[in-house]
Amino acid sequence: MNNVRTETKKVPNWITFLLAIACGVIVANLYYAQPLVGPISADTHLPLASAGLIVTLTQIGYVFGLLFIVPLSDLIENRRLVVSALAVVICALVAAPLANNALFFLAAAMFIGLGSVAAQILVPYAAHIATEERRGQVVGNVMSGLLLGIMLARPIASFITDLWGWRAVFTLSAAITAILAVLLALVLPERKPSPTMNYGELLSSLWSLFKTKPVLRRRSLYQACLFGAFSLFWTVIPLWLVSDFHLSQQGIALFALAGVAGAIAAPISGRLADKGWTKILTGVAIVIAALSFLLTHIFEDHSTISLAMLVVAAITLDMAVSGNLVLSQRAIYSLGSEIRGRVNGIFMAVFFIGGAIGSALGGWAYAYGGWMFASILGLSMPVAALLYYFTEKNI
Q: Which residues form the Major facilitator superfamily (MFS) profile domain (predicted)?
């Protein structure tokens, strides 16, 4: 009864706005550490070759959450589940700045990722509580908040670190997330699902869905390759900007802020996908991602022009990843509302595995071969996606 009531009642615009902010604030926790790999590694005595683990373990925690926590949204009341996940995030965010050794910080990073799946509970939750005629608009607005959180996390983290150090980033985020958790607990409409299977059956169905839905499989692997390249780029680029261009944390923040311009591709991709351009736009996004890495090698003299080309590469790479994300979500959500939560969890889990691999490879490659080796690995990921893309038929 409660489920029916929240799906048919018109949701106030301010709740949609709150959900958009919430998703942005929560998902930002996954990306704060990316531009801070250098100072965190130094303070926690983590070797440069293992620095990518800072981002990798956050993403691995997120994957575990996607596979084992997000499916619970089809079983238990969603508001309570979101607040419980945020409690995990808050504890981990409090622990992270207290870390004096690598093991302690890496454990906190993993739990930050685990609890941050609250964002992926809120996106399908928004679809459930919206009326049919406003569902697309509501989900689109919430996704805009999520994408802005992803794009703004890196420059915000760098600016705060430049002022007060990297530990302040996690302390402030813990406070903001705690306020958000209380607010969500007080104002979100209740949503009680009507489960048709138990938790074990729900988890068992994940592999079956991945195996039997070619659209889900293909879109997940495309995004895994692009997100792997994206994660490698943003894990390594702050290290390169410091060592070769001698940028401060404020300079890295300004660099990362430029990448936010790539978010413009998301709404454009959504509108063009509605016109049936999904397949061709996917190919364009993959090619743009590959070209982004090639752009970084046009000028290699550490000059202003070379730095400008890096900025362009960051923008185009972000455009490719955010644009393909919207294309992919539109495709997989068409597979049916009754499996939407699980499909979303599978899709996110697969492409975050790609991100975790990219981050780990990036730190290792940069330690042993500099930007040249790291960028070759980064380029290989969209190239692999392009080869797979050429096998696509009308499915």
A: 15-395
